[in-house]
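Supplementary material to the annual report.
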Amino acid sequence: MTARVTRSCFLALLTLVPWSWCAVGEATPVETLISSGAAYDGREVTIRGEVIGDIMERGEEYWVNVLSSEGAAIGVRAREDQISAIACSGDYFHTGDLVEVAGIYYRYAKRFGGETCIVADEVKLTRPGTEVSHPLSAGKILISVLLTLLSAAAAAFMKTKISPAAKT
Amino acid sequence: MISKPYSNDYRLISRYVGRILCGISFLSVIPLATALAFREWAAAFDFVIGFNACFLSGAVFLLLGRGAAGNLRWLHAMTIAAVSWILATLLCALPSQLSGHYGSYLDAVFDVMSGFTTTGLILIVDLDHVSNALNMWRHLLTYVGGQGMIVLVLSFLVKGTAGAYMMYVGEGKEERLLPNVIQTSRAIWYISIAYLFLGTAVLFVTLTLEGLAFPRSLLQAVWLFMGAWSTGGFAPQSQSILYYHSLAVEIVTLFVFVLGSFNFILHYAVWSGHPKEIVRNIEIRSFSLTVAIAFAILIFALIPSHLYGDPFILLRRAAYTLLSAHTTTGNMTVYAAQIKAWGSLAMVAVIMAMAIGGSACSTAGGIKGLRAGILARGLYQEIKRIVLTENSVLIIKFHHIKDIILTDQHVKMAGLIAILYLLLYGGGGALGIIYGYPGVDAVFEATSAGSNTGLSCGITAPSMPTGLKVYFLFAMWAGRLEFISLFGLLAFGVSALRGK
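Predicted assembly:
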């Protein structure tokens, strides 16, 4: 009886543990890595985010910048074979490939002149990037046309009525 | 007795404000052309609207100023400078706001003011996905702001010289490269454009070697140059200089912003065959000394923390941040959150550097090296006066292009402006503390705004309190115009309300 009560209490207590903290493979927010870097320095971490901008070749390796959903970006150092699946980087016209990067986090990596970065063990493509359309707004077009006509009229008016007097 | 302004005074001010706004409106042509070149059609319409709104506003002011007679007086010129900066900022924020990358119009105005004043603090959302046109706009504004929007208009749009010098002073510049102020304005632009081509070429090669593909390498070279030369600190990506993971990019941008923080008169002297001026000039001496002091404090503060674990890395990160602060640039090679990890003493060293700032008649902000040098010479004079006998004649000189005898007037003016800057920094710091930020963080961010630096320890964000945004807006504007136009505008307001 006592053992059953103890086991029930133990199981009840287990439900209170915030499992998200210790779940295997859970991603660490990039924001946390930057602001509380000491706790993760030199440790294996996993981040998720969008590949943005340029993929920069440096010798036999590459720099890839990954932007998290909270808006913080971090550099990822990776080999060519690790990033071969990346086809789309985020910019004005694209949402970049979403990737999951597992690797060692360095708060100030000596090898790279003190860069805050992740040296990748594995880069997994979780969702391919997509094109972003920027539809033209009819309202903006109409306002543009009206304002341009007004400006042209104002310029013509200024040329005839204002400019001669203003030349001082 | 204060005399009330006549309608002719308003018309004179209107006419020049109108000219400046019409001139500034044509800046939109460059991002518009960028949008068309990269097929960013939606962005193109933002700039068509922005151009027209600014041009039409200028036209309205020109119309209001029709029939104005007589020459400008100091009060007119100061009011023109102050009002033009405010109106141009409000109007140039339109295309930014229309881009959809700002939480509110206030945030867009904040970023445009930050650009024009070469501050570099940003509230833009999702910077990594903005159009090339918007990035061109942001960097163009900071490039023009570095030289001065009135300098731009004086260079190309004003034909007569009457009142030109007064408007030039109203924008926070005082010294002339050449006897004629319009020739001076043009010379400032020629120097800046020459460096633009040279610096862009060097950065383009550097970025290409570092793995960026054309045309992004060219665009980013132009933008990085504009941000660094104007000591603005804007960068095309949210990670600032960290995005490039490159020592070479750090070295080139550092070289550019240090050059940008030097007095245009010094550039002109060196270009005219007087290279020794670099060694003799009081501003360079003052800059070197204060950099050395602040750097020593910074290193002293950072060594015990063992943050970097390698002396070269420590020197690299500390030197870039400190020079970025002292030249009031704001380019960052450490994350904002990491600056706080440096500790209070290190932050104080950076605050000190930001507070002093770069050279007078340059693109930089802050109290300025010239004033710091004059105050130091003034202190030396007072100490020497105590030591010497009463009958001694004491003459202290300083070298700024020529040897100048230090007068009480020099020291008084330098001291007055320095006190105003300190009040501006302190006021922002106090407001930040009232809003609940730690003291050092609040003073750091306020000094960054008031000295037009742009380094951030994380306070400046779209979510920051509106009151602080408004104060920083004011601090950027007042700091850039060196208070003179602010007082001119206040005096004009008082005379309009209370004059007889």
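The two ends of chain B are 8 Å apart (CA to CA).
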